[in-house]
Design goal:
294 residues, alpha+beta, 2 domains, 6-stranded mixed β-sheet, 4-stranded antiparallel β-sheet, disordered N terminus, binds 2-acetamido-2-deoxy-beta-D-glucopyranose, Wall-associated receptor kinase galacturonan-binding domain-containing protein, signal, polysaccharide binding
């Protein structure tokens, strides 16, 4: 028992220690060079991070490889295929529309299983293909009983049957579905809008959701994977708490708790980084030593 507790304690310590070392060492970005600008489908002058099939290895970012056909440039994001309709290098993001969407249907989806990863994919020290953090998420819910008393649940008549009731809920928070009604399960999530000034309101009807789906959503260029920097006050306490609550990863949550200490000691009390680090280590030893004494 004591043994496993000790191992667990030292594993936590090693994790934090590794993190500190990694941070002290600075972040190394693999040097990737820009491919020469190219035209692809209707896009002119596509450049880094985009690349096209057959480009030399090391140019552009592999997950941003475009397939160019006639008038369309397509990209794969998680399980889906999307048309790239616009690139905004100033905003470091681009605009995509689901390639399997039936543009003429008022109930357009054939592939509800197609969706991007909510937080993008981690590749080395960067996050790739993350939907813009400004997107609004439409969650589709399938309920075995009708829901009458929840204004945020907008009925989707065309997908409902006599014994299954389908609703859409839109929210800025990807996993928020109001108070999930007991008889409901989520079966799809669709990102909407999110690019330069084109945000989609919450509480949208299904007709609005379909309209916004045809316009697509914004996806970010690769960006460095980093925990929020509290000491420089880049992030408010409330925001940190929100991230903490929503992050399912236990190691991240431990790290956020340490960040709260740093926020108070370094950010609010103005202690130096060195003292903050010493306090951390003292706290860590105090927190894990009972595990060794036992
Ligand atoms: C192509 O894009 C680059 C930057 O990505 C820009 O500097 C250049 O002016 C653009 N050329 C044209 C013809 O749009
Ligand atoms: C690109 O994004 C910036 C803001 O990030 C915005 O001001 C600008 O209008 C966008 N460009 C286009 C062509 O939409
Ligand atoms: C909703 O659930 C019912 C019962 O499980 C199923 O028959 C129906 O196909 C589902 N509807 C959708 C749109 O997934
Ligand atoms: C959402 O819309 C419904 C009716 O359309 C309304 O009753 C409800 O108050 C709205 N909720 C929010 C949070 O705007």
């Amino acid at each position: 028992m004591a043994m496993s507790a000790a191992i667990h304690g030292s594993a936590t310590f090693l994790y934090v220690f590794a993190f500190l070392v990694a941070n002290v060492g600075g972040r190394h970005h693999r040097s990737r060079y820009a491919c020469s600008p190219f035209s692809c489908g209707g896009l002119r002058n596509a450049s880094h991070p985009f690349r096209q099939q057959g480009d030399p290895a090391g140019c552009g970012v592999l997950s941003y490889e475009l397939t160019c056909r006639d008038t369309k440039a397509t990209i794969h994001i998680n399980t889906g295929t999307y048309y790239v309709v616009e690139i905004n290098y100033t905003a470091s993001s681009f605009w995509v529309v689901d390639a399997n969407l039936n543009m003429h249907s008022s109930c357009p989806y054939s592939r509800w299983d197609q969706f991007p990863q909510v937080y993008g994919q981690k590749e080395g020290d960067t996050i790739s293909l993350a939907p813009s953090d400004q997107v609004t998420w439409a969650s589709l819910l399938n309920c075995s009983q009708a829901v009458w008393n929840n204004g945020r649940y907008k009925p989707v008549a065309c997908l409902s049957t006599s014994n299954s009731f389908v609703y859409v809920v839109t929210s800025k928070h990807p996993f928020y579905v109001g108070d999930l009604e007991a008889s409901c399960g989520r079966f799809a999530m669709v990102p909407l809008g999110g690019g330069w000034g084109k945000t989609v309101p919450e509480n949208a009807s299904f007709e609005d959701v379909v309209r916004f789906m045809r316009n697509g959503f914004a996806v970010r260029f690769p960006y460095p994977y980093a925990m929020p920097k509290l000491t420089t006050r880049e992030i408010s306490f409330a925001e940190l708490y929100r991230i903490f609550r929503e992050d399912p990863n236990i190691f991240h949550r431990v790290w956020y708790l340490l960040m709260v200490d740093s926020y108070v000691w370094n950010g609010m009390l103005g202690l130096s980084k060195g003292i903050t680090l010493s306090l951390w280590i003292a706290k860590l030893i105090a927190g894990t030593s009972p595990l060794y004494i036992r």
